Amino acid sequence: MRLLLLACLRAQTGNATTADRIQSHLHAAGHICVLKDVFRYESPTEIANLTSADKFDAALAIHLYKGGRLLQGSRIPFGIIFGGTDINEDIKCEEKRRIMGEVLGEARFAVAFTMKMKELAAAEWPDTRKKIYVQTQGIKTTPSETFDWCRFLQNADIPTDRDNLHVFLLICGLRRVKDPLYLVDVFSDWHRKDPSVHLGIIGPAVDPLFTNEVKEKVKRAPGIHLLQEMPQDDLHAAMQRCFAVVNSSISEGMSAAILEAMDLDIPVLARNIPGNAAIIKHKDTGLLFSDPQEFVVLSKSLMNDPIMEREIVKRAKDYVKKHHSWECERKAYQTLVLKLQ
């Protein structure tokens, strides 16, 4: 089949990473899968013209609103993959909710990353429950073997002459829903008392206005570093060398960065929100914090208890292997796409 896959394709965002994986799964089954960025199109008419001109047999869209709205009234069959902010945030807006309900009604199937996400969608649109499948994200990490950690630290203005350096990495696209400034004040205060701790915020400037806000704040915050986005394999290598990976989002579908950290044997500290609590069991496979002060308390306990750290990391790795198999995800999408024939 010749398939169109619509997604937000900004480099290094979660949706772009998911789109790449799904494309790879479908190519492996012998389909042609063409990725298109939702931000290049404004209306379903444009997509209808594209599917007609390029002779697409079927389509997929990641994000029920951003991608799905472009397939409304589509002449070709399509499936939807929930993004996270569609079900967690966009559903609160009446007009978006109406459009998403219509799109879901037309879709042959929908994929939710968690049972919780399926339940939220099914509660809003009960008639669609049977067409929503739960498929967790499959994870495969590929750390670069030529990555230069010392140069990475130098570029970030992090001193390399300390033996007991503790670098925390917050990996996210710079937009408000990711709330990268949530920990900045408290972390900076902690850094003043303990100069061995540093927080690196790394990811693409998704929202330019908000990115300027982040830059201004970080300039005035010792111990906080805003880093350039980097290729996936370099990012995985940087994660491997850091002390812990941090997530401070207001809302998440399913954070690939958290799962990748688990796969790379790195502890995770994440804000206690439903999307994060769905993949982290507190003090078992990671640490969940409810406010910035608790983040510091938990970070210190992790730094002072290497046995707890080792046990968390081991259980997290086992969890990812068991529940986020890349091979299982591949089989699931290769089977689901047959519903579009």
UniProtKB/TrEMBL annotation:
This entry's Gene Ontology molecular function terms read: glycosyltransferase activity
Per the database record, which ranges form the Glycosyl transferase family domain?
166-317
Q: Which InterPro entries match?
A: Glyco_trans_1 (IPR001296), Glycosyltransferase_G1 (IPR052622)
Keyword terms, alphabetized:
Glycosyltransferase, Signal, Transferase
| KW Signal (keyword) present | yes
Show which residues constitute the signal peptide: 1-16
Looking up CDD domains in the UniProt record yields: GT4_PimA-like (cd03801)
Asked whether the keyword Nucleus is assigned, the reply is no
On the tree of life, the source organism's domain of life is: Eukaryota
Write the protein's name: Glycosyltransferase 1 domain-containing protein 1
Q: State the species of origin.
A: Aythya fuligula (Tufted duck)
